[in-house]
């Protein structure tokens, strides 16, 4: 049985934050869950996916976040407790249904998880999604630790049902990817079949209806504001005339700092965990007893601006600071020593940080940047694109996935990366705005997510570029999740449909469509050259499974290659493809037999034919 | 318990997340509070993986630069790269078996001599235990047990204050039954090597 399905209340178990969130949803009786994967949220959905395979919980990997949210919205309006989870930028994709779903509301509890990523451990920006709660009028919860994340999602379902409004659960990477002990609670029975009751005056958002709904939405949020005032998640610890307002992980850094600085008797901390709407009266009362107040929050001054506005309303002129040059920055993430130092600065405490080790004489150590795996099919495709485009003035719009790493030398495929699906539509723009050749790359999961619409645009507006779709049969970057083009039978999961990319692209009206096997290097280069010579939109589908995944499901068995005596030391292999299995020993190129998977890319580019399968 | 802060650095695939889980379980057995945080963004693609583990009476789950009490490094250059996490009071335990980054493997980037790495770590911190965990892991039966060899060395130093028995119990609870025996051997080999002061 899946460890998170165990009906063992009281059991204490070490869980990853994302597991705790999944368990909390199960304890809340969640019946319906949708997602599009994205770090740092991916383990929440992975665990729900696994649990759905051994219970009556419905889970799906949807095509993108907009789809996931709409699928979920229907379930939550059919009386099922529904959970929709995504990374922060995913909520941008889902923002259209999000903003109007607020008007419609739900008939059963619905929670939307946004997993934000301050410091961008694995994201393209560090946007602060708390503003979505304010912007769209959603109640929002923000946990400060793993155990609280589990409690909060349960409370979020209850609140959502009370208000008939979806609730946002906002986490940051340090909650999602922390481990701590969590105590299991009771599992509420799941209701897995619902019924949609027709209610056009609530569910059909024509202007006349929506105007009424907006009024009702504001009333719901007034009710939410009242609940926020007495919420157990908005609490005050300690007492004194120095005030600190801190959310999320910053709350714990502040707690430790106050103790470390020995100012427990002087400081009280307000921790807003139900942070939209903020508990206005509670905050005003808190401010009234303070000489000065420091607001500690990663990201934007979301609370700080509100707290200052509340102080103004209350006629309080005390100093309230947060994001200023001397104190906190909207950049990156905070850490305990930083918070300790800023608290000391703000309240004028003597504090000398512990002496740092002198590292000036530590020798330089080469970096260890991530690289495409040994035998990654993207490497072969990029090599072929590079050869086919040799001598041309070309732009390579790229997209988001493992293949983004192709922008690094020596492959250097990737000139413009903005968001998922952006490769296709920016190709449209570059091809019209310049006379340069445009050859772009997009992953298969990304193509389904939001590349298709750009391609339709290209066909209709008669753009001129070559799009290479990297069909490696899986969503690799985020941990090998399914997508609509995946052969689920291969994963031992029958019962799914499958969308064939080649047929799809042809049916969109792309006139030049070809398929390559990237490890057939010569053929691939020739086919790419033809596609690039075509005047109009051409699509090349590079079909070869992600080797890391193929190995894990035993679809491929590695067979290592070796460099034989015929090697004349051109080092083309190292200089042109940089497979991480190469190394140099005593001046000679070698292949690490433990990591080489035998893709034979290097063997095909070696001018001396010196690379051969290793003889056992 | 007074907070004790420990950083583990490793290269993707070396099993440091499992090592942290074993220590977490051991903390439960010891009755010590524990919080851990991990960064595993691009681990599978050869990047650096770091975990922070905080035992005892603190609320935070990450560790600032200069504030680690223990640094456990699974790869010597990564241990040295993490020296900024240490203070002069930090105890350091490192593997000496190298896994050079790709640029170094192809003769381009700089990789300090292991002896130099040891020298610097020793001089700047409160003590170094350096063992060839790879050789010991092979001796135990699998290169995959490097992580547990290093846990053996860590426990021997006493820096954590956990008993050998409790950590072994945690290994039994957290590691697949078929692999327990080999890992217990790996643990003992690491423990003995640290006791012998093997460098
Ligand atoms: C809107 C949005 N959702 C999710 C993500 C997280 N994410 C990054 S890459 C990726 C998918 C990559 O899959 P694919 O296109 O198949 O490329 P591969 O990694 O397999 O090469 C996802 C889901 C994101 N960056 N943006
Ligand atoms: S996980 Fe797959 S797609 Fe990603 S770099 Fe490795 S082989 Fe390539
Ligand atoms: S065959 Fe060559 S390119 Fe392919 S994995 Fe092995 S060393 Fe790397």
What does this structure look like?
The complex is a heterodimer of chains A (616) and B (199). Chain A has 616 residues and is α/β, with parallel strands linked by helices. Chain A folds into 4 domains: 227 residues, Rossmann fold; 114 residues, Rossmann fold; 176 residues, 3-Layer(aba) Sandwich (Rossmann fold); 53 residues, Alpha-Beta Plaits (2-Layer Sandwich), CATH 3.30.70.20. Chain A is 37% helix and 18% strand. Chain A is built from 22 helices and 23 strands. In chain A, helix 7 links the parallel strand 6 and strand 7. In chain A, helix 1 runs parallel beside helix 7. The model of chain B has no long low-confidence stretch (mean pLDDT 94). With 199 residues, chain B is an alpha/beta fold. A 6-stranded mixed β-sheet of chain B has the order 2-3-1-4-5-6, with helices on both faces. In chain B, helix 5 packs across helix 6, helix 6 crosses helix 8 and helix 7 runs antiparallel to helix 8. Chain B has one domain: Pyruvate-ferredoxin Oxidoreductase, domain 3 (3-Layer(aba) Sandwich), CATH 3.40.920. In chain B, helix 2 links the parallel strand 4 and strand 5. The interface between A and B is large, with 53 and 56 residues. One iron/sulfur cluster binds next to helix 22 of chain A. Thiamine diphosphate binds next to helix 4 and helix 17 of chain A. Chain A: Its cofactor is [4Fe-4S] cluster.
Q: What's the SSE blueprint?
A:
The complex is a heterodimer of chains A (616) and B (199).
Chain A: E1 12-16, H1 17-27, E2 32-35, H2 42-52, E3 58-61, H3 65-76, E4 82-87, H4 88-93, H5 95-104, E5 110-116, H6 130-136, E6 140-141, H7 146-163, E7 167-172, H8 173-176, E8 178-183, H9 200-203, H10 207-229, E9 234-238, E10 242-246, H11 248-260, E11 267-272, E12 274-276, H12 280-288, E13 292-296, H13 302-313, E14 320-321, H14 336-347, H15 377-388, E15 394-395, H16 422-433, E16 437-443, H17 444-460, E17 465-471, H18 501-507, E18 512-516, H19 521-533, E19 537-543, H20 547-552, E20 561-563, H21 572-577, E21 582-585, E22 588-591, H22 601-605, E23 611-613
Chain B: E1 4-11, H1 16-30, E2 34-39, E3 48-55, E4 68-73, H2 76-81, E5 86-95, H3 102-105, H4 114-124, E6 127-131, H5 133-140, H6 146-157, H7 164-174, H8 177-195
Parallel strand pairs in B: 1-4, 4-5, 5-6
Antiparallel strand pairs in B: 1-3, 2-3
């Amino acid at each position: 049985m899946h460890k998170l399905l165990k009906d063992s209340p009281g059991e204490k178990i070490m869980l990853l934050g994302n597991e705790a969130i999944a368990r909390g949803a199960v304890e809340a009786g969640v019946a319906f869950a949708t997602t599009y994967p994205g770090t740092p949220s991916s383990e929440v959905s992975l665990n729900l996916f696994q649990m759905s395979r051994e219970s009556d919980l419905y889970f799906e990997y949807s095509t993108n976040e907009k789809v996931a949210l709409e699928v979920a919205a229907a379930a939550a309006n059919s009386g099922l407790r529904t959970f929709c989870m995504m990374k922060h930028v995913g909520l941008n994709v889902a923002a259209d249904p999000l903003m109007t779903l607020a008007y419609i509301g739900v008939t059963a509890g619905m929670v939307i998880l946004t997993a934000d990523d301050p410091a961008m451990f694995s994201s393209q920006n560090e946007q602060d999604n708390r503003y979505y709660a304010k912007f769209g009028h959603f109640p929002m919860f923000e946990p400060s630790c793993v155990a609280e994340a589990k409690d909060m999602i349960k409370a979020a379902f209850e609140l959502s049902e009370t208000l008939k409004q979806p609730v946002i659960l906002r986490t940051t990477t340090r909650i999602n990817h922390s481990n701590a002990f969590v105590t299991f609670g009771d599992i509420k029975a799941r209701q897995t079949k619902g019924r949609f009751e027709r209610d056009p005056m609530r569910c059909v958002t024509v202007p006349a209806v929506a105007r009424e709904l907006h009024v009702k939405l504001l009333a719901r949020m007034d009710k939410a504001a009242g609940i926020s005032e007495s919420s157990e998640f908005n609490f005050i610890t300690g007492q004194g005339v120095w005030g600190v307002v801190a959310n999320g992980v910053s709350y714990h850094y502040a707690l430790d700092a106050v103790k470390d600085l020995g100012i427990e008797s002087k400081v009280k901390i307000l921790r807003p965990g139900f942070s939209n709407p903020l508990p206005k009266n509670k905050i005003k009362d808190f401010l009234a007893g303070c000489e000065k107040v420091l607001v500690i929050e990663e990201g934007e001054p979301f609370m700080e601006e509100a707290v200052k506005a509340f102080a103004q309303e209350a006629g309080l002129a005390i100093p309230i600071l947060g994001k200023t040059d001397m104190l906190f920055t909207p950049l990156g993430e905070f850490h305990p020593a930083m918070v300790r130092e800023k608290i000391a600065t703000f309240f004028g405490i003597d504090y000398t940080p512990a002496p740092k080790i002198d590292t000036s004489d530590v020798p330089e150590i080469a970096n260890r940047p991530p690289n495409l795996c040994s035998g990654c099919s993207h490497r072969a495709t990029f090599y072929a694109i590079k050869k086919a485009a040799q001598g041309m003035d070309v732009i390579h719009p790229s997209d988001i996935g493992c293949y983004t790493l192709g922008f690094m030398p020596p492959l250097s495929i990737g000139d413009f990366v903005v968001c998922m699906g952006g490769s296709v539509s920016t190709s449209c723009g570059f091809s019209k705005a310049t006379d340069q050749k445009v050859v772009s790359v997009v992953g298969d999961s990304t193509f389904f997510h939001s590349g298709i619409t750009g391609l339709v645009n290209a066909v209709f507006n008669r753009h001129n570029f070559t799009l290479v779709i990297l069909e490696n049969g899986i969503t690799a970057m985020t941990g090998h999740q399914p997508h609509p083009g995946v052969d689920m039978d291969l994963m031992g999961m029958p019962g799914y449909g499958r969308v064939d990319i080649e047929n799809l692209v042809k049916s969109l009206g792309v006139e030049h469509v070809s398929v390559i096997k990237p490890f057939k290097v010569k053929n691939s280069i020739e086919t790419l050259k033809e596609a690039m010579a075509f005047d109009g939109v051409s699509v090349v589908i590079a079909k070869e499974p992600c080797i890391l995944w193929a190995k894990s499901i035993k679809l491929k068995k590695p067979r290592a290659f070796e460099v034989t005596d015929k090697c004349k030391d051109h080092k083309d292999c190292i200089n042109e493809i940089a497979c991480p299995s190469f190394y140099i020993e005593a001046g000679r190129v070698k292949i690490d037999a433990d990591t080489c998977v035998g893709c034979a890319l290097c063997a095909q580019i070696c001018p001396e034919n010196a690379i051969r399968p290793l003889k056992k | 318990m007074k907070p004790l802060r420990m950083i583990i650095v490793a290269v993707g695939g070396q099993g440091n997340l499992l090592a942290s889980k074993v220590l977490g379980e051991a903390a439960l057995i010891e009755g010590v509070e524990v919080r851990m945080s991990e960064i595993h963004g691009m681990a599978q693609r050869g990047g650096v993986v770091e975990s922070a583990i905080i035992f005892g009476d603190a609320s935070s789950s990450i560790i600032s630069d200069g504030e680690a009490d223990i640094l456990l490094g699974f790869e010597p250059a990564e241990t040295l790269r993490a020296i900024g996490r240490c203070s002069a009071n930090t105890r350091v335990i490192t593997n000496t078996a190298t896994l050079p980054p790709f640029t170094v493997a192809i003769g381009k980037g700089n990789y300090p001599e292991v002896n130099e790495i040891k020298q610097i770590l020793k001089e700047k911190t409160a003590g170094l235990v350096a063992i060839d965990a790879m050789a010991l892991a092979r001796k135990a039966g699998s290169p995959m047990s490097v992580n547990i060899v290093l846990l053996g060395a860590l426990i021997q130093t006493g820096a954590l204050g956990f008993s050998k028995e409790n950590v072994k119990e945690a290994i039994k609870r957290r590691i697949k039954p078929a692999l327990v025996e080999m890992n217990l051997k790996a643990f003992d080999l690491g423990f003995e090597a640290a006791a012998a002061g093997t460098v």
